[in-house]
Specification:
The protein has 131 residues and is of the alpha/beta class. The protein has five helices and five strands; from the N terminus they run βαβαβαβαβα. α3 runs parallel beside α4. The longest helix is centred in the last third of the chain and has 17 residues. This is Phosphate regulon transcriptional regulatory protein PhoB. InterPro entries: Bact_response_regulator (IPR050595), CheY-like_superfamily (IPR011006), Sig_transdc_resp-reg_receiver (IPR001789).
Length: 131
């Protein structure tokens, strides 16, 4: 892992899924910032940008709408986004990608798959970020 540690913003309303996901990412050496809704995540993003956003179920805003906001905002549109959803419907997957998600994982997900996707997205984003 690079130094300083990469920051993952994890937005998930369900406490158990949020804690499990954060734990897996912390084991990889990421700094994980946990938020349980879009309002708290937006406030945090207004002062600091993560290296990756992982977004699951939130109730204050549609998750895909929040992804769309991130991709429309010039300040955050370069940040890779992983969408964690219980919905495997192809239309939902397409909506997420159209909104700006870089990866889509159906929950419950395989932790190894999550790890590979997050590591690859952060590495790819770092290659395209000017120093």
């Amino acid at each position: 892992m690079s130094s300083p540690r990469s920051i993952v913003l994890l937005i998930e309303e369900e406490p158990v899924l949020r804690e499990i996901t954060a734990f897996r990412l912390e084991l990889l050496g990421f700094e994980v910032v946990e938020k349980d809704n879009a309002a708290k995540a937006s406030l945090w993003i207004s002062s600091k940008l993560p290296n990756l956003v992982a977004i699951g179920h939130i109730s204050d805003v549609d998750s895909i709408e929040f992804i769309n906001r991130l991709s429309d905002d010039q300040r955050s549109n370069h940040i890779p986004v992983v969408y964690l959803s219980a919905n495997s419907d192809l239309e939902e997957v397409q909506r997420a990608f159209n909104a700006g998600a870089d990866e889509y994982l159906v929950t419950p997900y395989d932790p190894v798959v999550l790890e590979k996707k997050v590591v690859n997205l952060i590495a790819a984003a770092a290659e395209h970020t000017p120093e």
